[in-house]
Amino acid sequence: MKNVTDSFVSLGHWPFAGSFGFNTDILATNLINLSVVLGVLIFFGKGVLSDLLDNRKQRILNTIRNSEELREGAIDQLEKARARLRKVEIEADQFRVNGYSEIEREKLNLIDSTYKTLEQLENYKNETIIFEQQKASNQVRQRVFQQALQGALGTLNSCLNSELHLRTISANIGILGAMKQITD
In this model, does residue 65 exceed pLDDT 70? Predict the structure, then answer.
């Protein structure tokens, strides 16, 4: 902790204009780099993330509206089914003597099919909402990961000099050669 405070205290002692040197205090340079990267990510990523979330919100709201329209259609179908039911009940009173059990069976089938249709529409609405929420969540995660990866690569590329880059490539080629010899 003393090194960190010393690095901030030593900021007041800049070298003269004619000299050039490297800052070897890794804690101070990492704090500066991290603060710059975080500032850039927050500044540029906030707008993209809010746009993504707004778009997803609109899509989800549209899906909910569509589901509500489907629900209203199902309610209309239910009303029509109830009207048919009333009609069937009137006919049942007229033909009760001739076939009460058959008419009752028809009535139950009509009610069951209407409830099944309503259940299917409700399930479809719920599945659609869940699917859209998961899709939105996955897209946001993917976008945040992509931005973080781009930021990390940018930071890594800016920190590598030519000699370190060549040594890294040579080491990786050596590792790949050793792996090829093992597999052969």
Answer: yes
* CA geometry: angle 137, 141, 147, nearest 5 deg: 145
Angle (CA) 23-28-32 rounded to 5° is 105
Residue with tokens 């405070």: 5
Q: Is 61 a residue whose pLDDT tops 90?
A: yes
Q: Which residue has the tokens 């080491």?
A: 171
Residue 126 has pLDDT above 60, yes or no: yes
Furthest CA-CA distance within the chain = 115
Q: Give the dihedral of Cα atoms 178, 159, 32, 1; nearest 10 deg.
A: 40
- Report whether 125 contacts 38 (CB < 8 A): no
Q: Chain-centre distance of CA 139, in angstroms? A: 4
pLDDT tens-digit map of 5-15: 554 445 445 45
